[in-house]
Amino acid sequence: MTFGIEFVPSDPVLKIAHYAKLAEQQGFDNVWITDHYNNRDVYSTLTVLAMNTNSIKLGTGVTNPYTRNAAVTASSIGSVNEISGGRAILGLGPGDKATFDAMGISWDKPLTTTKESIQAIRGFLAGEKVTQDGDMVKFGGAKMAFKTGDVPIYMGAQGPKMLELAGEVSDGVLINASHPKDFEVAVDKIAAGAKKAGRDPKEVDVAAYACFSIDKDAAKAKSAAQVVVAFIVAGSPDMVLERHGIDPSAKADIGGAIAKGDFGALMGGMVTNDMMDAFSICGTPDDCKARINDLLDIGVTQIVAGSPIGPNKEKAIKLIGKEIIG
Ligand code: F42
Description:
binds ligand 1
């Protein structure tokens, strides 16, 4: 098992560097930084992390091919790879529609755009002159003017077709999920994609990019994760809620409470224990270990501790290091 940690650069970059260094000392393998236009820039953040750490791998978790051209992405991640001595990982997904609406970007053919972007980026990273006439991504003989080195490419994916594509073309998949039921479905799709491309499914690292909250006090861990789980429920397709026995009508109530900023209602029973179980890895070190073991049994190969990580981030990172990775 490899262990990763996700940070959202809504926090100052130097604070994230402090947490990343701590995570490295505690034995984490990867740090993943999210990419949304309204937060600090992902590549500036990764550059600072590169200068403040020695061995932890540094990934975009995830960037997208709409706000950044594939050649620019290859140059950016190649720069992080050079600065960090070969520790960069490119996580790429089609992006977050809500932020694109706000930016005036139309989200056309997200799967095709992701697939064609990965094809181009692989060419750039291999030092090739890229000439490509795809449906969505076109290049007329573009080439990097420096050696980027080889960078693994991970995909952010949830949908069945995206998971299959990840099996075909990626080195790993970051899946926003925490429950074995979701991974049963995902692992099958990834394996089908890998087989279609003549690859061994074991070549693809399957990461549970999970809402994670750990504390010695289970109640504190739960209350730190409740609001994150509320956002996950509000944004989940009906099919995913039904898979966990959750009535999809809960989405409207929870979405309404989020819109009103009524966190009292969310914490006061609207986010149920079933929802917490379905959409987070949460509780004491023993609770978290039990869930992690279930995920590993089903074919997950990397656990990524995502927001909130715990009621106290520093304590949580140390607890994961000591009780889970250690
Ligand atoms: N998005 C961000 O913007 N920033 C982040 O930091 C971020 C982190 C992140 C981490 C993990 C993770 O799993 C996702 C993350 N995301 C982040 C979201 C990510 O960028 C993607 O939006 C998300 O993972 C994609 O969700 P999805 O796998 O459900 O894919 C969508 C596009 C979907 O609808 N997929 C369908 C499917 O079955 O998989 C396929 C749709 C399809 O086939 N479309 C056709 C095509 O060509 O695109 C067109 C169909 C037609 O006719 O129009």
